[in-house]
Every structure is written in structure tokens, then in C-alpha cells.
Amino acid sequence: MRAIAPKRNHRPCKWLTRHAIFTEQADIAIDLRQRAVEIARMRSLRLPLLVSLLGLTLVRAAEGPPASAPLRWFKGNLHTHSLWSDGNDYPEMIADWYKREGYHFLALSDHNLMQEGQKWYELKQPVVVKGELNFYGGGEVLQKYLRRFGPDWVEQRETAGKKEVRLKPLAEYRSLLEEPGKFLMIPSEEITATWKREKTDTTPELTGPVHINLTNPREFVAPVKDADNALTIMQRTIDAVLAQRAKTGQPMFTHINHPNFVWGITAEELMQVHHEQFFEVYNGHDAVNNGGDATRLSTEQIWDVILTRRLAELKLEPMFGLGVDDSHAYHNFAIGKSNPGRGWVMVRARQLTAESIVRAMEAGDFYASSGVTLADVQRGDGRLAVEIQPEAGVTYTVQFIGTRRDYDPTSQLLLPPENTPARKTLPHRRYSKEVGAVLAETKGTKASYTLKGDELYVRARIVSTKAKPNASVAGEVECAWTQPLVGAKW
Ligand SMILES: [Zn+2]
Ligand SMILES: [Zn+2]
To answer: Angle CA(216)–CA(222)–CA(223) in degrees, nearest 5?
Structure first.
């Protein structure tokens, strides 16, 4: 997503609260570099106490991690932007926010680049955009950065009258924030492309975005250019990533971003992609049309269409759904701003490493959330079961959604209303109600569904009665989505 011009913040109280907490925590935060200096100084004094402390440390280090750690849930966001592309804060400030908010892992996925190499960011005069001052890395944004990490860490220079701040590469800043078992940074890139179909005598020019996140790459992957459709971009990008994975041996995966952003990808294109397991069912950016509109499907409807047709007709693997932030705006929190903290994944793994997170997600051992926490998900042996970690005063509805094998496969094109401007993107199709039907529904904090044998798949959607704080669009309630359980004979 490209940044959307910010609007005036209508919720100053909330912002002031967050800001106050943030500043206070920054003041009391342990500065790791300072601690390292202190240890070096004490070491030079050879204090007996230190020797015994170091001895204890060595014993602990020798014990190492347990041979088989228990499975745990790790919370993470795999779609985030920083000043390296079109986000409006420094990468270590963003990572610091996520860590303080209780996330275990974070991928900063800037557009068409990896956070590598030398990059100096030019500080320009703040600009008022739609009534709000945008600092573009300077002003208060730079002051916050200086307060949090100190003038020794923040590198500034002035050349030829230009003031610049150096953007730290991931390899430099990650050690300030990472802690084994507690917080992990995962390399990432949002591979950002556009398809375009030239105007003909009978059709207008058509164009749309295709954005694909690559989690844990070793090397940069360039966007596909000169494609006249979304499917070509998706397939060529995924094939390039598979080649990199085969060459390097590094576990990595792509996920298709926000298919409804500018309506760039239709269900019929998405369903045809080979070797793709993931797409975003929930994206917290306010311009991605998660809910669709009168003539276009929601991301959940797209999910049901692609699951149904991949399993029934195309004989392709199912796709899993992610929740992500796609955050760009870190200074004012309000509807209409692409803030952090709206969508995430909970991944069940034994270790907090990029490799174990990738492998657990490839196995489908994760769920997407926009607020609801699940204590347990069981998905296998013909049964899908969820247990919710309830909040006081909130009630939950669990819907088991799926398609039966004998579904009605008919569909109709959804055309725009008459007398509206010609669209530059492809029309969606509406399928019968048997595609993605609610097969069972339960209220409460525990629910399970046992396959009867005629289902292509079943997935669970958990809907709460709790209004989502700082929602991306008005009226959202907190939800969670499990991955689909596939019927035996697809
Ligand atoms: Zn995007
Ligand atoms: Zn994005």
C-alpha cells in the first residue's frame, strides 16, 4: 500500500495517552549499549562479585535451550512500512513499538527494497497535508527518535545544505531489539508491481496493483514489469522466490497482499496461482476494501471462492489467510490512518526463529486475528475445534464456514451500476450461496465441527461483540479466522 495522505486526528485524548506512555517507557528503558559499556568497565575492575555473576552466566549458557521446547503461540505482524519506503517513522522506532505492545516477531516490508546498504534520508521542511503537519522524518519525529535511542546512535549529517539522517539497515539495528524467545525481526520486502492492459478500440485502458510480501528472503526480488494481468505478476514473482529458496536453502514464503486494494486482483486470478499458500484476509490499512462493496467481493468471500475452486476444480493446495497491519502511520492514531496494531497472526511454534515461524505457517499452524485471542485451535483428524480466551463482558459467535462437494458452481459477472465511469480493473463474479456457506454456528467460548464427509473444506470465523479500538473502518468488531480444514478426498 502506498501511504494515504493523513487527515486531522479527531481523537486527541487517545493519542495523548499513548504518547505519554511511550515517552515514559522510553525514559526508563534499558539501553543495551550502555549496559555493554558498564559490563566492560566492571570487567576491567575485576570485581569478585562480577566474576561470580559471570560464572553463573557461563553455567546457564552451557545448559543452552531445551532439546524440545514446548509449543507456544507467538504474535507477529508480517506487513509494515518504515521511512525506508513510505512509512513515517524510523525502523527501530517501529520495531520498538511492536515489542512494547507484546508482539514476538515483526517483518518490516518496505516497497521494492530490503533494508540493506547505505541510505541517507533527506530531511525536508514539514508539509501540511489535509490539515496535519507531516514531518517526513524530521521535527518531532526526529526528536522522538533522538530521545529513544540517543544522539550517539542517531546519525545525522549536513552536505551541500541538505540535512540528512542515516536509515539503519536491519543488520545494524536488530540486535538492539531482539531477545531470544521474546522478540525477533524477520527480513522482508513488499514486492510492488502494477499490471497494465493498453486501451483498444473496444476496451479502455485497464490497470491495477499487485503487491506480494516476501517473508525471510536472503536476496532482493525485483517486481515483474510489463505484465498485462495480475496472474502473470503473481506467478513469475512466486517462481523467482522458489528459485531463491532452492538456491539458498533458506525457508521463506510469499503472501499475496490486499487483493482488493484498488481492486487489483480478482478471485479468478488468485485461485490460479501455483505454489502459493497465503493471502491477506485482513489488512489493517483503511484503503484496502476488506469488506468489498456492492459489486465486489469481500476478502472473506474471495477466500471461499478460491478455496472451493482450487480444491474442487483446479486441484491446487488450499490458501491460508493472514491478518496484517500494513502500517505506515505511527504518530497519530485514528480511523483513516494506516496505524499499527490492527491485524496480526498468532503462530504456534517451539522456537522463535524465522525458520520455525515459516515452517509453522506453511503447516497452517496459525490463525489471523483483528483482536480475538484463541487459547487453542485443533485442525486435523476430520475435526476443527477452537477455544477462545475470553474477555470479560464480551460474547463470541463461532461460525464454521465451508463448501460441500455438490455445490452449485454457477456465477455471474458483477457489473458496475449503469451511468458510472468505466472501471480500470476487472469485474468480480458472484457465486452461489453454497460457496462459503455457514455450515454451523455456535455461541460461547468453545466450539468444534466434525466433517460429515461431503465438505471440500471448513474454516472457523470467530466474531466478538467487542468494537475494535482504532478500527481501520467504522463499525468493525474484533474477529479471528482459523485456517481451513480440508476434506479427505480433494
Ligand atoms: Zn501494498
Ligand atoms: Zn504494504
So the answer is: 105
